[in-house]
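In pairs, describe these two lines:
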Amino acid sequence: MKKVAFITDSGSGKSIAEIEALGCYSVPLQLMADKDSYKEFETISYDKVYEILGENKVMTTSLPAIADIEQLFSQLKEKGYTDIFAVPICSGLSGTINAMYTAANSLELGFDYFDSGTTAVIQLYLLKLAKSLHEKGIDFPQIKEKLMEVVAHANTVLIPDDLMHLARGGRLSSTSAVIGNLIKIKPVLEVNLKTKGRIEVLQKLRTFKRAFHYVIDEMAEEIKDASDHYHIVVAHVDAVEKGQDVLATLKAKFPQATTEFIDLVPTVSCHTGLGCIALQYFKKVD
């Protein structure tokens, strides 16, 4: 008889211990700054990430250490698990899915996964939903159909504040960053199924206020009169006050939606820089 372990990574916004408390398992993504390497939520905190970003250092990210994946899967096999169902950070942002597949195959564990097209709170919701449906006796093809219902009505939007940080990371030329900062250009980025899990530019607008209201209009078009079925997340990168103002506006605009306020996961915030505001919204399913 199959015994299935539900696996994710720290892109979910949770530590190994927090995921294990849900009856699931996780491996940490890696962050690098200068010559130092960190395991997300295990050997580095949000405050440390903000400190490094505040020093104008370039941070990079990588998939979980192969040794960590292999060790976890070996332990799961010893516990009697025969199969892995993974909901990791999306393939457009990381090679984690392929690494997990390789590790499972080498240990002769069955492997299946769902590519969410995103990360963070949506990733965590999908993991918990998959496990809950499995415990109700629903088979995996049907589970994946349910997960697709969520991501088909989901989006992740980022509004970076520091264009010079994008330039330091090679995502924007220094000249464009300087000019953009002078005229208060705010890029609106998105990550979803449409972008195949990659971060792409949705729009460029002058001032954060205009960028934010553009996003609200896009959300309203998607959510329409079904806000009671949606969950909205506001995430910030060391910008609590600005984030809380955004949250208050969204609560007034979509009073029936459930909401959440968090720090943006480090594997994303280290690329966007300080002051970034991110929004995630998705349709909850039964």
The chain has two domains: 4-28+65-151, 153-283. The radius of gyration is 19 Å. The domain at 153-283 is CATH 3.30.1180.10 (Hypothetical Protein Tm841; Chain: A;domain 3). Confidence is low (pLDDT under 50) at residues 175-180.
